[in-house]
Amino acid sequence: MRIDILTVVPELLESPLSHSIVGRAIKKGLVDIRVHNLRKYGIGPRKNVDDYSYGGDAGMVMRIEPVYDMIEELRAERDYDEVIYLSPDGERLDQGISNELSLKENLILLCGHYKGIDHRIREHLVTREISVGDYVVSGGEIPAALLTDSIVRLIPGALTDETSALSDSFQDNLLSPPVYTRPVEFHGWRVPDVLLSGNPKLIDAWQDEQALERTKRLRPELLNKYF
Predict the structure, then answer these.
(1) Regarding beta strands 106-111 and 2-7, do their DSSP bridges make them parallel or antiparallel, or are they unpaired?
(2) Strand 60-62 to 106-111 pairing
(3) Which of the listed residues 6, 63, 175, 182 has the most CB atoms within 10 Å of its CB?
């Protein structure tokens, strides 16, 4: 898989994409992630990528030319399955979207900044818009890193135990059951006996019961998808 991220602040993506699961997946050659500075195609000697908005609204708007030129450069090299704009008013990111995108070959992620991007980019260049929540952050870089992480960890070989992702929260529209490790007892707090039983059927049944109970208590709206 290849993921190209377009941004005006590439430094914000250096650490999230260099460590942990994403960093190891890159080193293994499972994913090729390229971060592109849109100022490469900035306007004028100062490489401006933004300008005042028509209509007099407060805040600067990202210009169309740098985004168009960068996407055209990338599309000349390969076909892309999606050009995704990280936007507060896009479809809400969930596990199903991450699962779907993990099966793609080539993705472009466009990070907005300032007040947003010229709407013509959204109309003519972007194929999908994704939001990480109903709030606004300073730019699309952190959401892009979050989306990238949620995709990359699903690529076969990215996790040490590939079955681990199958038991993550939301994979079955349920929260995951509680997990424990050593020691068996700490300050009188014990690991549930069923997990020490060595009986896979009893353990599976307990985990299913706990997943359902936790979802009902903490995220009951998810049960509408489950049933």
Answers:
(1) parallel
(2) unpaired
(3) 6
Q: Is the dihedral of CA 29, 74, 65, 91 positive or negative?
A: negative
Instruction: Report phi then psi at 46, rounded to 5.
Output: -95, 5
The Cα 156–Cα 2 span in angstroms is: 14
Q: What is the pLDDT of residue 56?
A: 83
Each residue's pLDDT tens digit, 69-88: 999 999 999 999 999 999 99
The amino acid occupying position 209 is E
* HEC readout, 130-174: EECCCCCCCECHHHHHHHHHHHHCCCCCCCCCHHHHHHCCCCCCC
- Map out the domains of the chain as residue ranges: 2-152, 169-226
For 1-10, 48-57, 69-78, which range has the lowest pLDDT when averaged over its residues? 48-57
Predicted model pTM: 0.89
How many Å separate Cα 76 from the centre of its chain? Answer: 25
> Does pLDDT of 175 surpass 80?
yes
CATH of 169-226 given 1.10.1270.20, 3.30.300.30, 1.10.1740.10, 1.20.120.160: 1.10.1270.20
Q: Which residue has the tokens 């038991």?
A: 167
Average pLDDT over residues 25-36: 98
Supply the DSSP string of 19-66, one letter for each residue. SHHHHHHHHTTS-EEEEEEGGGG-BTTTTB-EEEPTT--SSEEE-HHH
